[in-house]
Amino acid sequence: MVFTVRTADAATAPSNAEQEALKALEAGDLRVALTVLMRAYGDAVYQFCRRTLREDALAADVHQQCFVQVYEDLPRYSKKSSLRTWVFGIAHHRCLDALKARRRLLTHVDAGSEIPESEDPSARPEENLVRSSIERALHYCLQLLAPATAAAVTLRFHEGFTYEQMAAISGEKAGTLQARVARSLPVLKKCLEARGGTP
Amino acid sequence: MTNSCSRFEAEGLERLERGEALDGHFAQCAECRSAAAAYDRLKTALTRLQPVYLPPPDWEARVWALIRQREAPRRSWRWALGLAGPLAAAVLVIAVWPRAEVSPTLEVQVIEAAAQTVRGVTAKPGDTLRLRATTPARHAELRLYRDGALVLHCSTRAPCRRDGKVVSADVRLTAVGRYQPVLVFSDSEIAPPPSLSAATGDGMNADMEAALGQKMQVQTSTAVDVF
To answer: Using an 8 Å Cβ cutoff, are A197 and B49 in contact?
Structure first.
């Protein structure tokens, strides 16, 4: 897995993409619409899947399946939410399905073949980028959160979704998500402090 | 922070996430003000966190390949239209099966070769396909088709195992293609799939038609794409 930092502003690019994808969709050109959506949201959706699933191979599979489903469901897109919210909703459900399948497997697979915990990305040898110690520690601490909590924190802070949008994505109540995120913050703060970082 | 007052963590954080105002205590309590500033910095750091995980470089091509694979069989499976009636009848038979305390199911998992972890519904050569079926019938057979051609059929002999109402098998995927698992079950003996003796263009079509024609029940699962 390539380990690099992208500096593209995730907030500005997609709004143009949204228009472009909608235009293609209205013209009935699903292939162009999918291409636009993959370019605009592909990296962010992968980031979300990887943080939720914590395993490269599984995240890569789910991420690809997610965009296959986007392509298949585009004709039924109802414009109730933005395309970005809609795409993340598909990703969210795909990730939950994969987590359930993984849990089922763990009850059948022999001991010793458990899914390995993902390593601390900040400790990868190929990382040669200068990042603050807080950022490195945060990447580590996010992995300690439960998958659903990590997903909510990623959607809220990293992707900048509102709680209403997050509710549309996950099918949960906004209040539940607010409480989940609020309860995760002391966990993250404590973890950061334990790793020598003070927010 | 001395933690002599923990109201900010206990209440303040959630109220802020709900978009609610904080009461006067939070403005006057030094510990709460300090905690609020620390959490503001934490949220800012989370917002500015740079992405560290990137998808495989060829992921878009893989998505298009999957889409092509899914579209191709859809076009060629015209038999499905012709079988709509018999299939509906089969579903009805399953629904009113006299000994239906066990519903037929067919689950599929792909086990990654190296790490023994679960993939989605795509796989690579070398991975293992884990099939697990439950059946209410006396006889059951697992079949696996690659791009419409029969590559496996078994009920109790290896790699299949039967344990009560459960038939399972682990199959190593050696070639690329679309793999379609099928469970055939019946209280009567199951006849061998016709595609074993007669090489046809699409063995799966012939086998499905024969199974339904012989009053056998058929259950399919999600197909798995190996590439």
So the answer is: no
Q: How far apart are CA B51 and CA A41, in angstroms?
A: 13
Hey, is the C-beta of A136 within 8 angstroms of any chain B C-beta? no
Average pLDDT of chain B is: 80
ipTM above 0.90, yes or no: no
- Who has greater pLDDT, B96 or A160? A160
Percent of chain B with pLDDT over 90: 18
- The Cα A92–Cα A170 span in angstroms is 6
CA proximity to A36, closest of A59, A58, A14, A53: A14
Is residue B47 helix, strand or coil? helix
Nearest CA distance, A103 vs chain B (angstrom): 10
Which chain B residues have any C-beta within 8 angstroms of a chain A C-beta? Answer: 9, 13-14, 16-18, 38-39, 41-43, 45-57, 59-60, 62-63, 66-67, 70, 109, 111-112, 115-122, 130
Contact A138 B46 (CB under 8 A): yes
- Check residue B110 and give its pLDDT: 80
Per-residue CA distances from B166 to A195, B64, B132 (Å):
49, 36, 7
- CB contact under 8 Å between A98 and B120, yes or no, is yes
Q: What is residue B11's three-state secondary structure?
A: helix
Nearest to A124 by CA among B48, B116, B53: B53
C-alpha A91 chain-centroid distance: 8
Q: What is the pLDDT of residues B51-81, one digit of tens each?
A: 888 999 889 999 999 998 887 655 545 555 5
What band does B112 get if pLDDT is binned at 50, 70 and 90? confident
Q: Which of A57, A160, A185 sits opposite B119 (nearest CB)?
A: A57
Please, is A11 exposed, middle or buried when counting C-beta atoms within 10 Å of its C-beta (0-12, 13-18, 19+)? exposed
Q: What is the pTM of this model?
A: 0.58
Whether residues B17 and A179 touch (CB distance < 8 A) is answered with yes
Lowest mean pLDDT, pick from A17-26, A130-139, B11-20, B211-220: A130-139
A-B contacts (CB, under 8 Å): 151
Return the H-helix or E-strand segment holding B68: helix B59-76
B49: distance to nearest CA of chain A, Å?
A: 6
